[in-house]
Description:
Number of helices: 2
Shape: elongated
Number of strands: 19
Amino acid sequence: MKKIKASSVHRLSGGESVASSYCVLHPTKNRVKMKTCCSLFVVALFLQTGAQQNPYFNTRNSPPAPSITCPEKTGRFATSQCDAYIECEDGKGEEKLCPDGLLFNPALGIYHQPCQYPVEVDCSGREATQPPQSTEECPHRYGYFRIGDAANCGQFKNCVDGRAYVFDCPEGLAFDEQSLRCDWPDQVSSCDAEAYLGFTCPPGAARGDFDDNSYTTFRSADCHHYYICVNSRPRLYNCGKGRAFNELINACDGAENVTGCASATERPHYTTNALRF
């Protein structure tokens, strides 16, 4: 008995290979079997080729995804979700999602980054957002967040891809999560200015107009710092190295001109218990 190869490997238009088919041929008895075997191979090859060339031939094909309507041919457009948007180019739309913690700002042009921090975006009518992707260090993967409680307001962290980077506000200022900047503690609703600065304005020390030079000042215990009371709330100032607050002239002066401050060294006037990463 001898094996005869009925066909060699065939390459279809898509580049796939159809496996070789073999038929068993007896020299005198099995011509019918040979004909039948080769016919089956041709049918199988036709089915394979048809399925490859005609997508409707494959009954397992899923229906095409619904097209996305573009309000304009090119641009970015808001959806019902504040951190999602549709980006259109030449009339073809694609749904996209901002990184966790950022929101889509439709007021920005096509040449700007589409996603911004929440304080910069108006989400009226599209308040829904994706679930937070919190990490051990960050409540969201991106954003600015205060560290500490109302008595420790001077630190914040910037989260980038779930990693926290800790920053200190300039001395005497507190981090405001509503504006994402460091401000006077009395202007930050989440900060207790008196507890944070360690000073309470005495009665009668209120001053409403900051441009009025008739305000009352109070020197701190370390010579270099002093307080100004605005609307009965304290603000901390620093005279700088080598200088001290002189109560006789109600201003900063050379440390040698202030009694008890000539040899004073710079030392912390308050401490914070903020977390560090």
